[in-house]
Hints:
Elements: H1 2-14, E1 18-22, E2 25-29, E3 40-43, H2 51-63, E4 69-72, H3 80-86, E5 90-100, E6 114-117, H4 122-135, H5 144-155, E7 159-165, E8 170-176, E9 183-191, H6 200-214, E10 219-224, H7 227-235, E11 239-248
Parallel strand pairs: 9-10
Antiparallel strand pairs: 1-2, 2-3, 4-11, 5-10, 5-11, 6-7, 7-8, 8-9
Amino acid sequence: xxxxxxxxxxxxLSRRPEVVETGPFVIGWDPTTDSRxxxxxxxxxxxxxxxxxxxxxxxxxxxxxxxxxxxYVPGCCPELESxxxxxxxxxxxxxxxxxxxxxTLAPLPVPDGFELIEPSTDEEHHGGxxxxxxxxxxxxxxxxxxxxxxxxxxxxxxxxxxxxxTTGEYAAAGLASPPGAGLVEVAGxxxxxxxxxxxxxxxxxxxxAATAFxxxxxxxxxxxxxxxxxxxxxxxxFVPSGQRLYIALD
Length: 250
């Protein structure tokens, strides 16, 4: 699973508006945002890496005025972490990733009083994105660039979903990336504070995976930033399967 997940990350970054390939690395970045969570690099699985490759990677990031930063599965490039640390990088986090297949998925219904939608208008995208932005500490109001990124995810074969009340108040949102190596990444799962602990995150996660599977994906993966989040995902069939490393040169 490690190699497939890493290949899917390469595919995700290769679909960014701008892509830079340097040595064994792929940098995917977006000129419309300086978010470190959007613009980052990853190694191709199994590639040999040298200190010179790392130096070239840093130079490539400087050339596009972005923070040198990587997200990757350490087991796919075992020597890389020590090379990055020697170059001055610092570890941000290690997250467990969980994987799901159509056989393990356990769908959950959306609770009464809510409806699930696949946004198709700017207004609908804006509603879901505003929930995500606020939940992750960003501006409460989504920007036109945010809306365009969500619409681009859909155009490229990904899934964007939101949950709102029957009176139109947006309560939760998330997405699944376009498939890469047969897998999609489920990400950005967010629930507005006043609607938490009602099962919305679990139902949304399950439906994102189910929709991706109906459209041809063979598996899905996501990350749990805490044991509590991990238990939510395990409820709908995601199984702890490996580790991912976040590391940057600030």
